[in-house]
Protein: Electron transfer flavoprotein (Alpha subunit)
Amino acid sequence: MSKKVIVLGEFRDGSLRNVTFEAIAAGKTVAEGGEVIGVLFGESVSSHAAELIHYGADRVLTAENPLLKNYTSDGYVQALLPIIERENPDVIIFGHTSMGKDLSPKLSARMGTGLISDAVDVEVAGGNIVFTRPIYSGKAFERIISEDETIFATIRPNNIAPLDKDETRTGAVESIEADIRDIRTVIKDIVKKTSEGVDLSEAKIIVAGGRGVKSEEGFKPLQELADVLGGAVGASRGACDADYCDYSLQIGQTGKVVTPDLYIACGISGAIQHLAGMSNSKIIVAINKDPEADIFKIADYGIVGDLFEIVPLLTEEFKKLSVST
Structure:
């Protein structure tokens, strides 16, 4: 049975985040031939509508309002609720991002329906939409079937592959009015603590450091390797607690959960709290002086040695490969 699905687009530095296209792919799966509607909020967002259609959306609704330029839960709730009431979708999908994790429970509570968060897979089986999500810090997975008339769900970035971009696809784009009132949160300024570059939560390659990097300076070789690979730098809680880097880089149970194609753990012992945030990475490479470190138990490849010798060597070799190609 075909269904109607709404996908909320998300921006970062003026561009659509990749998780938006992943959410559209999830929406196409659950729609079963039905309609996937992309929704964009902000200023001058209409120019991005075609991109949603190229990645699989059938129709796009845009709401342009200065009060929607920066995300606030007050503004986005007021903008999205009327759309949900008008379109009456079967499923609303968000990325499992800071915005999605904040907005989705507010909307689902307003509508008196449940929320399936942090889904890593979605399928239709026996006429039911089945969401798969990790539990117990990634040690197990549960499959959930919602009986609510309207299903709210967030999907973890980097788990559901986006559809191939098809620039020949066309679809209707409608501009709608967003009547925004009673904004209790006023954003004066946005201070970024992370370095410019690849978004850690969506990075395909992550080079992460632990206490073994020994200092803030110790992260420089990791950053160089990440730059060569086109990846991002992450850290364990131990490294953050030691003031080697900012907590915005923290990966783990109390930090970000990531699932890159390649995770290079440098000087990370493998504490269970850290493993909870990265153990589902597709390929894990561990570099550690201690051959008994727990990180080697989950690593696909292990290198026993001094990271300050090994990481620069890897960087040079990858540079040679990039030049030759």
